[in-house]
Amino acid sequence: MALTEDTVRWLVKMGISIAPIFFTLIALLATVLVYCYAPYWAVRRVPGPPPIPLVGHLPLLAKYGPDVFSILAKRYGSIFRFHMGRQPLVIIADPELCKEVGIKKFKDVPNRSIPSPILASPLHRKGLFFTRDTRWSTMRNTIISLYQPSHLASQVPTMQSVMDSLTANLPNSEHEDIVFSNHSLKMATDIIGQSAFGFDFGLSKQHSLSNSMNCGEGSDDIDDEVSDFIKQHIYSTTTLKMDLSGSFSIILGLLLPIFQEPFRQILKRMPWTIDYKVYQTNLKLTRRLDEIVEKRSSNRDDRIQSKDFLSLILNARESQKTAKDLFTSDYISALAYEHLLAGSATTSFTLSTILYLVAGHPEVEKKLVKEIDDFGPHDLMPTAHDLQNKFPYIDQIIKEAMRFYTVSPLVARETSREVEIGGYVLPKGTWVWLALGVLAKDPKHFPEPHKFKPERFDPNCEEEKQRHPYANIPFGIGPRACIGMKFAIQELRLALVHLYQRYTFRHSPNMEKPLAFDYGIVLNFKHGVKLRVKKRTS
Ligand code: HEM
C-alpha cells in the first residue's frame, strides 16, 4: 500500500519518522534475499537453468522425474547446477569426474550431504550412510570384516531357505497376476532380517502380507509384533520423500531449512499431521530396536554362536576398545536398522526389474534358462563359489538391468574444504551429487541406451572393452561405495537361479507400460511389478 500524503502528514504529526520503517523493511527484504540466494551465490559460476526463488528446480523434478538430470546434462554438460528447493546441488554426470570426486579427491569430499528428510530422523542419521569423518571411517573399518567372502558364503543356506518359502507361495496358475515386487520385498526383508538381526520375520511364509507391504499403512489382519515392526519400518522409509510430497517439515526443509526444526518440534505434537505420525513411528521403531539390542547384549551365550550382524558388532564391542567407545547402543540400533533399510528396498527393486525386463525379452530368457539348466538338476543348490564362477550370463543380466533401471540414480556427497572439480572452484560445504542414472543412459558409453542388451557387458564384447571403467557404477564409487554390494549380488544371483530353475515369467496385461516410478530416498514402483508365473517342467 502506497503512503499517501495524508498518512505521511499524520505520521509526522505523531512524531513517527518514515525512515526507520523504510530501512527496517529494506533490511528485512535484504536478509530474506541473502538467505535465499547465499547458497546459490557460492556456486553461481557452475552452469544451470535459472532457479525459481525458494522452490528452485523442484517443478522440473515434478515434471520429468529423475529423467530431468539427463535432460539438463544434455543442455549444460557434465557438471551443472540443480536447485533442490533453496539448496543448490552440483551434479556430476561424467565417469572421469565421478572418479575425481569419489576416489582422487576423496579426502576433500569424504561425507554425504544430509537432505531434509534425513535431518529430521536421528534413527537414519546414526547409520554408516550419514555418519561423518573419523567416526565414519572407524565404523566402516570395524564392520567391513562382516562382508568378507567366508561370511557371505555362510549366508547362502539362509538365503536359500527364504527363497524356498517364497516359491512355495507363488500361484500355480498362468492366468493369475502376482505383484512380484511385493514378493521380492518380503524375500529381501526376510533375508536381511536374518543376517542383520538373526531374526526371522517370516514374511515370505505369509500370503496375506502382500498388500500391506506396498502401501506402508498396513491392513487390519496384521496385528502381531513382527508385522507391526515391518509396517513401521516401511512407513518410516516411504515417507522420506525428496520432492514436495513429504511431511510439512520436510517440505520446509527443502524451501526454508531454517524453519524445519522449530516447525517439526511443534507439528510432531499435533496428532493430525504427517509429522506426528512419522515421529511416533520412528519412536516406536527406535524403542523396538533398543529392546532387540538390549536383549541380545544380555544373552551372551547365544550371541557368541550367532553370525548375524548385530551379534557380531556386539561381540566386537566386548573385545575391542575402539568398538566399545564407538558402538553405543543408539549407533548399534541405527546400524542394524540401516541394514534392513539399505538391504531390502534396493535389492528387491533390482530383482523385480530383472524379472520384468527378462519377461519382455524372450531371447534373453532363453539364454538365461540354458545357463541355469547347464548347471545341473533343478533342485541343485549352488554354493557361493558356484554363484561367483558358473553364471556369467546372469552377471551380464544383473549389470544391464541395474544400468537400465538404476535404483539409486543420485549419490550425495559434500565438500569438506574448498576444492576444484571440473574447472570450478567449489567452496567448503557444497553439495556435490554423482548422477549415476545419467551416466548409465549416456549413449557415449552405452550405444542405444534404451535397449536392454545384457551382452554389452560380455567381457569379450568391444563395447565393454572400450567403455570407461566408471560408466556403470550402480553401487557408487571409492571408499564410500556400497558396503553391501557383494551381499546384494550374491542374493540376486541365487534368487535368479532359484526362480528360473522352477519358473518363467510373463508381463501381466494389467501392468502399465512403461513402468511408473516414485522418487523417495531410492526409486520405487508406483504400482508394483505385475507378472504371470509359468511353472517349468523338470
Ligand atoms: C541392489 C542392491 C543395492 C544397491 C543398488 C545399493 C546402492 C548403494 C549406493 C549407490 C550407495 C552409495 C555409494 C556411494 O556413495 O558411492 C550405497 C551405500 C550403502 N549401502 Fe548399498 N546398495 C544395495 C544393497 C545394499 C545392501 C544389501 C546393504 C547392506 C547389507 C547396503 C548397505 C549400504 C550402506 C551401509 C551404505 C553406506 C556406505 C558408506 O557410506 O560407507 N546396500 N548403496
TrEMBL record:
Family annotation (InterPro entries): Cyt_P450, Cyt_P450_CS, Cyt_P450_E_grp-I, Cyt_P450_sf
Keyword Heme: yes
Binding positions (heme): 482
Gene Ontology MF: a single term: iron ion binding
Keywords from the UniProt entry: Heme, Iron, Membrane, Metal-binding, Monooxygenase, Oxidoreductase, Transmembrane, Transmembrane helix
Named cofactor requirement(s): heme
GO biological process: secondary metabolite biosynthetic process
Pfam family name, one: p450
Superkingdom per UniProt: Eukaryota
Regions that span the bilayer: 16-38
Family: Belongs to the cytochrome P450 family.
Name of the protein this chain belongs to: Cytochrome P450
